[in-house]
Amino acid sequence: MKNKEALQLTSILGAGQMLAASAAVVVACCILLVYQLLAQRQALVTESHVQAAIVADNISASLMFRDRDAAADMLRAFRSAPNLLQVAVYDANGALFSEYSVEGHAAPQHLAPAGDAGFNEVRVTSDIGYKDARLGKVVLVNSTHGIRDTMVRYVGLMLAAAVGALFVARQLVRKTRDRVAQAERELDNLAHTDLVTGLPNRRAYYRILEQKLAEQPTSGGSAALLLVDLDNFKVVNDTAGHHAGDELLRKVAAELSALLRPGDVVARIGGDEFALVVSPVRRDLAHALAVRATEALRKPFNIEGSDIFATASVGLCLYPDDAATREELVTAGDTALYHAKKTGRNRLAEYVPEMTLRTQRRIRLERELRRALEAGGLEVHYQPQFDCGTEQLVGAEALMRWRHPEQGFISPAEFIPVAEDSGLIVALGEWVLLQACAEGARWVHMAEQAGTPPPSIAVNVSARQLREKGFLDVVMRTLAATGLPATQLELELTESMLMEDVESAVQFMRDARNNGIRLSIDDFGTGYSSLAYLQRFPINQLKINRSFTCSLPNDGTTIVSAVISLARDFQLAVVAEGVESREQLEWLRRAGCTYAQGYLLGKPMPAEALRQLIEAQRQPVH
Ligand SMILES: Nc1nc2c(ncn2[C@@H]2O[C@H](COP(=O)(O)O[C@H]3[C@@H](O)[C@H](n4cnc5c(=O)[nH]c(N)nc54)O[C@@H]3COP(=O)(O)O)[C@@H](O)[C@H]2O)c(=O)[nH]1
């Protein structure tokens, strides 16, 4: 619509410009013609004066001797003058002496008083004399018809030239206008197209969604919005390069497009986010389509010779069932997608109003968590870690605890993601680090008095904290403030957070190690780091996730054995977490696992309880 209006405006402007150009040409032609007319008339006047002067010079003798024949002979020479109407010679008394005239322009018998000859004629007079004597006058009348004919020819020529020029100008204007219109169309297209996939982009997506929702009352069905977010796109980009990432996006775009009917639309609305707008459609069919989309993206994509698993989280919602406006529909889609991602990725979540309630709970949690941090409502508990062989206490992991005034203990599994999403984790993380380092410094003091090696303190680091530019400075300042030696601190990082920005992560790890801080990869095996990266990470230890430990010794032995032997090859220590049975501990000890952590050996406990545990272990460790 806007394009049409723009084109109309362009045509009106073009016509206006043509009209202005035509008017300018007409005015220029008129000025030129008037100038020509005046110039030609002036030339005729000059020529007439010259002719009259010639007659006056040559006829004086004939007039003096009253030789009319000689005078007539002389005047007859004017028969070949093209403009001459009349040339008459009058004697000193004003009586006609001789004349030559064309038909209808005979000279009067007596010299008429000089008057206006009119526009069609040029009349000049010249005195005839001999020495000082005045013998008479010559009157010469030339016609301006010659000028008129010339002017008519000029007008014709100018008109032809002007029409020709205007025609050429019109063609040029039209061509330029067409080019401008074409360029505008291309720009508009570009502004609404994603250059990598050729799909409509986010801007176009909003427009399309608006149109589809406007059509709903007439089409009678529902409109479905599917938001598709690739789970591993960032990893593909970081590990295989942007070229491979683009290739993956194109393949995903083709895969999603192939699922749609004509008239339905798929758009790329973010780096790794696609939207499918399907209408009209029934809920069950929209659900089936969302399942197909999720499955289609589960299969590997061959990118530059390697199989890449992109997998996707999909959020589905319908208009008007789940939302009354476009904005509400987009929010519902985002909420469903968010739930698909939060519940483990690589899955489909269909919007239900409870999701909004859950989102509201998250918002409330965030507010209360902030308050708890300020009002001292948080605690740090410590879960001991033991040497698998000697079962001596070697360290402890600091774990945050929130005692809510009404709801009691809220699990970190619930509030840590809220804190991560809101950014509050940065402040929370700093607080935990301070508490943990201060506690670790107390353990060092206790160990010094007992003459035993001090237990180390492990602190979880969230991806958000790692992204903070000055995070290492914060750690170093905390160590300095609490007096904990850097070698006693272990930071637990996860594979996925390291893979977010490998180069920065490696830099951070190098700097941390150079300062003596120990590094451990938490939940090893649940992320997607490659062995190539493991080699680049300057770490001290791998931590086996409890999901692997819990099925030991019946299942999971292959994975755990592989991690232990991998750690041995890389000269890393291994901590198995989630050890709940003696059988598991025995198996781990035999498999060569370095340390163990779990409910069997000790649950997370308040600081005081852990200090008592240290006291109880009065024998040397390691
Ligand atoms: N960034 C931060 N993350 C933190 C912090 N404090 C906790 N967390 C993370 O929250 C997740 C849940 O923690 P939590 O509920 O404390 O669970 C920990 C242990 O209690 C639990 N565990 C340990 N042994 C066992 C066991 O034998 N059985 C069993 N069912 N659970 C056990 O495991 C959690 C420790 O996990 P990990 O950190 O991976 O070692 C959790 O992801 C915490 O990381 C914080 O201050 N910052």
UniProtKB/TrEMBL annotation:
SUPFAM superfamilies: EAL domain-like, Nucleotide cyclase. InterPro entries: Biofilm_reg_signaling (IPR052155), CHASE8 (IPR033417), EAL_dom (IPR001633), EAL_sf (IPR035919), GGDEF_dom (IPR000160), Nucleotide_cyclase (IPR029787), Rev_trsase/Diguanyl_cyclase (IPR043128). Residues 362-618 form the EAL domain. Residues 221-353 form the GGDEF domain. GO terms for biological process: cellular response to nitric oxide. Pfam families: CHASE8 (PF17152), EAL (PF00563), GGDEF (PF00990). Signal peptide: none annotated. The chain crosses the membrane at residues 12-38, 151-169. GO terms for molecular function: cyclic-guanylate-specific phosphodiesterase activity. It catalyses: 3',3'-c-di-GMP + H2O = 5'-phosphoguanylyl(3'->5')guanosine + H(+). Keywords: Membrane, Transmembrane, Transmembrane helix. This is EAL domain-containing protein. It comes from Pseudoduganella ginsengisoli.
